Amino acid sequence: MRTEHIGKPISRVDGRAKVTGAAKYAAEYNVPGLVYGVVVSSAIAKGRITRIDVAEALRLPGVLQVFTHENSPLLAQSDNSYSDEVAPPGSPFRPLHDGEIRYSAQPVALVVADTFELAHYAASLVRIGYERDAHATNLNEERERAYQPRPREFIPPPESRGNAEKAFAEAIVRLEEEYSAPIEHHNPMEPFATTVLREENGRLLVYDKTQGVQNVQNYLCNVFGYSKGDLRVLSPFVGGAFGAGLRPVYQVFLAVLAARELKRSVRVSLMRQQMFTFTHRPAIWQRVALGAAPDGTLEAITHKAIAETSQFEDYSETVVNWSGLLYRCDNVELSHTVVKLDLHTPGDMRAPGAVWGLHALECAMDELAFKVGIDPIELRLKNYAERDQNEGKPFSSKELRACYRLGAEKFGWARRNPQPRSMREGNVLIGWGMAGGVWEAFHITADAKATLTADGRLTVSSATADIGTGTYTIMTQIAAEMLGLPIEDVTFKLGDSSLSKSPVEGGSFTASTVGSAVKAVCEKIRKKLFQLARKIDGSPLANTKLDNVRFVDGQIRSHNDSSRAVSLIEAMRHGGLSAIEEKASAGPTPEQMQYSRFAHSAVFTEVRIDEDLGTIRVMRVVGAVAAGRILNPKTARSQVLGAIVMGIGTALEEESVIDHTFGRIMTHNLADYHVPVNADVHDIEVIFVQEQDEAVNPLGAKGLGEIGIVGVAAAIANAVFHATGKRIRDLPITLDKLL
Amino acid sequence: MNSKPKADAATKATVSLPTKNGITLKVNGAVKQIEIAPWTTLLDALREHLGLTGTKKGCDHGQCGACTVLVNGKRITSCLTLAIMHDGAEVTTIEGLAEGEVLHPLQKAFVEHDAFQCGYCTPGQICSAVGLLREGKAKSPEDIRELMSGNICRCGAYANIVAAIEQVSRMGERGDEE
Prior knowledge:
The structure holds two protein chains of two kinds. Chain A is of the alpha+beta class. Chain A contains 18 helices and 30 strands.
């Protein structure tokens, strides 16, 4: 029996369910009498509905109802009721609330029928008349309207220091460039969907695709007036989300509305096209100005960003603060403003803000390195920040130097000829580029519950999610190691609003946040077991202290003498207990808050570009990551691999193209919105550098969901420059921009 | 809340909806007879009529590959074909690959190589890989990448997917498979 689990490459505990088709996602709960809702989306971007004719749809036998703003019941009236844990300041979008159109393809009706096909057909028969207003969807044409957004929780507003303007004017080396990027959509493979199972007593079981079951439960209770006992939200499996499921999505509102009004079990699934009708990574324009000494020492950094938000909410993310953090510089000017456009509110998408901010900063650093004629790594080391100058705090740990060094070694960076267009094979131009990355190591408060039964089996639970990140697995590992049990004897439960309180799953904070709560609750169980073990007549542990025992191989064992041991089952039996149940809460301590806590990375890429055709292939990527203790090298590597793949998409492929004449996203399917496919991905190597961190949180582990993508777009853009001599500052870097 | 307006019987009668037809599918070795409308895709027939939700719906346009199943041994996107077109066909879904508790070598390799994260594209990837190996065209990792590009994995597990398929492909050459 092996009971040391943390740090071991254990295969996912939910792996078998996922490879056999047994894992059930939100749209996969089938019950007799289930009815199907299909959403009708608006045809215009701004204005109002003048007429909505549902008669033809209702005439079809089997169509039960068409919900529109005209027949929607009176629900909660305050913005607060529609808000949620992750909502930015403003008035959240209310589906079917009124006839106003706020963005193109907003939901305007829900057709409910006996079968999916019938609902789909009936939806095509809903006739809608509109009165159009002029809309604005082009960020670049509206930049002068930018304003300071109302601050959002967890997003510190940028703070400037020194006098960047003066220092820039006086600097001998000056670089000032603009960078831009389009809207991206998360596009998890599973479309958003909700199945509401209505029990005979009227209680609702809401199987929803979400990153936060309790967030959705609170929202639905506030909006519809349910009590928590009447409505339970479940999401045991989530088919990817990447931030798209942090806030309640409109299909959950519509499904509950239909179930409530029709007194039926209802399923509402969005079409892939409708996956482009809610949250997204915002389009952005940035300007970075770097002033430096001739040796590359930074004297001034100015980073300005203008992003879009909706007409109804002030979305903002941390875009520019990284420029005051990653390098030592006394003169820093940072600003982040937004423009209201007639689009849905943007939202958090994998490393929100950092993907854009680090693209601009790390491309600018590459441009500076080339200008002053030094190696890009040398420039970064020269300006290495030993302290967080934004917050005036020391780092809990920062092994970024090791990332640069080990990444460069693995990649073979020393063999790079710095001259652009210098590494070709025939008509293929080869480019090598690198960039650094940084992401928050958040830790917030969560609760967990644990039950150890007399047969030595442990069940631990918290209402978090596993969106493919490996939550089930790493929480099982932590709990099993804490109590010295085999993995098979431990079950971790999540994705159920009735479980212990947890924040949404996101921000790379789940490992630290829920992991610390799991650790805390297991510590309580250990304490109780130890007391029971000591009370046994003639206990071999009678004169031992809790600090002097280990929980291993199903036993409590003395550190000094491993023959002095009591099994957990024995302790329980002697205590006459059939189960031990404990609850615990864990959050960051004041000691932790004294430190600035971040994960770091360095990314190295090789691109090969056909000089005649402009086609770009990313042949090699090395990602070196410093993220504290790695709980599971197998799932950790997968997280970083996947993030690098998404970064390739950001650099070269992904763009939600808006036809501004209609204010409508035209690339709303997976043939036109390109995400990386298997053939786009070649050799990727992931390195975790050693990083000891006792201060960051009780586990010493930093989250890994996001750090892997940060810096990838810049590393590829820099490689493209190295290959071609062309700086493409507008993402994605498509072949037309190279020709 | 307005209740649904009562359409009179005469009006209802004038609307003609497709009538259901009986078809027989041999799904994962079991003969299934279902009454199905001509507009129902094979994907929806599996998920909504036969309760086989292991096959996933990702786009309904044949663009993502999540719905890949084997029909008469060949991999196809089940969202782009109507169930009624397959009367009498043999269909294998992810639920039909394991032999009882014993996983198919590809299922086992996917777990070992961590060839998935969220798991939503996984049944399609595995069914596609079964089809790919039968086609006998994948001779190199480059071939696997190219011939598996109809199956999108947004979690980006491609490197591990290729490693898993390569491993089973090598086993097959040695005659270890099945």
